[in-house]
User: What shape does this take?
Amino acid sequence: MTTLKAHSDQLFGLETSLKPYNTFGLDAHCSGLYHIYSAKDFIEFLHKELTPFRIIGGGSNILLTGDINGYIVKNEIKGIHIEEENDETIQVRVGSGEIWHQFVMWSLSHRLYGLENLSLIPGTVGAAPMQNIGAYGIEQEHVFHSLNAIEIATGKIVNFSKEVCMFGYRESIFKNTHKDKYFITDVTYCLYKKPQRLHIAYGAIAETLQMKHISNPTSSDISEVVIEIRKSKLPDPKIIGNAGSFFKNPVIDINHYKSLKIQYPDIPSYPVSESAVKVPAGWLIEQLGFKGIIRENIGVHKKQALVLVNYGNGSGRDIWNLAMEIQNKVREVFSIDIAPEVNIW
Ligand code: FAD
Ligand code: NAP
Assistant: This one.
């Protein structure tokens, strides 16, 4: 039986600390926090008419700039169910509160392919379609089948196909027209039983596989390499508070890029189309001298300029001020707008 568990003693007044619920480790408060274990729990929560409220999964893609005026729904919906399978593929429906990396590990233990490049990304399965999580040349849309979500205004369950989700680079319909309108309850992925559509050309992966003399990698081999690379470059939120890449990589017009290239011959780029290129935001930020800076309790990570960090007692407001300073400087020097990837609350 599922239960609706509320911290009823802390329901009113700004008393419930969200520090354990966000990977920046920021000590913001909310009026009350509800753990939701099923779609039914969420419907019951809606009936309580506790508004406004926000949904949290792993809290690894949010910046709390202050206390939350309202309630927090903490998603804990679990379960991994095989829906369908044939010789080639397997369709798996996953509870949105499952930990993403644990789901990836489940797929590897079943010798499945498709999720290996997305190993060690923090957060929950339900948040993965929100920004179409991606790493090392793969995005979750590559194996996404569909999802179920509850429409907050009506309590109705709606099924979303891949086409309707409108996935893009760190984008989906849920970050745009459907923002804050749905609670995702489960996501169905279609994984491969044999090595298919492997993405191992991405610089660091190819180099590490070669170093290990692995020429026909399994999904577990690739996952191990990804985990190794990530551990060597990215701060562990359990040790240093962060939310991964703070900004998205900007896509700029090719002519703009060519003019920057004259002034900055080393500027890296990756083609997006004939007329546009992606420029790593981390490179731009590093050129401006922000990499590794420390401002009292916060700063920019020393190994990755795209990651803003909280060294312990920083405030969300300070992190946001630093982010805006970086954003303004990038605009001033390179005439490029870098947009936050992290959800600012
Ligand atoms: P949260 O931060 O809890 O929520 C994010 C947003 O989604 C919020 O707006 C929230 O309201 C909404 N939301 C969450 N769950 C639901 C739901 N069930 N229904 C409706 N709305 C919901 N991201 C990448 O894409 N690639 C990476 O390689 C990557 N690496 C990272 C590395 C580190 C060290 C860290 C800290 C973060 C990284 N991220 C990366 C960012 C983050 O892990 C992902 O965006 C992740 O999907 C967020 O999941 P979450 O459950 O923590 O979401
Ligand atoms: P990196 O390898 O140092 O590369 C820097 C940037 O260049 C990346 O952001 C990546 O863009 C781009 N890039 C590098 N090689 C590329 C190629 N062959 N084709 C296209 N683009 C290329 O990056 P990193 O910081 O160590 O991160 C490694 C991967 O993990 C990246 O894909 C990154 O997106 C992902 N990651 C994401 C987060 C997050 O919070 N979103 C945090 C950590 C790592 P893309 O980002 O578009 O891939």
Summary: The pocket of NAP (ligand 2) is lined by residues 134-137, 202-204, 233-234, 244-245, 249, 270, 280, 282, 304, 341 (CB under 6 Å). The longest strand covers residues 182-192. The helical segments are 39-47, 100-109, 162-165, 203-211, 219-233, 254-263, 281-287, 316-334.
